[in-house]
Amino acid sequence: QVQLVESGGGLVQAGGSLRLSCAASGSIFGIRTMGWYRQAPGKQRELVATITSGGRTNYPDSVKGRFTISRDNAKNTVYLKMNSLKPEDTAVYYCNADGWDSGTYYIVWGQGTQVTVSS
Predict the structure, then answer these.
(1) pLDDT class for 12, splitting at 50, 70, 90?
(2) Strand, coil or helix: what is 53?
(3) Please, what is the average pLDDT of the chain?
């Protein structure tokens, strides 16, 4: 089973930038899509960005043009570069991965990292 460890969260001012990292370990063979989700207090978890094994990306309108997801398959790591941060970006950010391993489909989540954007 894949295990995910996130890092890079912190406190930044509005307009600033931050880079999140998520390293995968364990039975990583067969990972298909990796992505980032976030959850703010009192709100449901929402998609931030995804990237397929082939490098295709997807973003919602709320972050499109400001955030960039990338993937280093050799290092088994996915990144999220966040520019022009806004207070509404404040949330716990979770890394996600899914795929197939020995005929079984799996979905795994990281523990989350806090991102706080001040006014």
Answers:
(1) very high
(2) coil
(3) 94
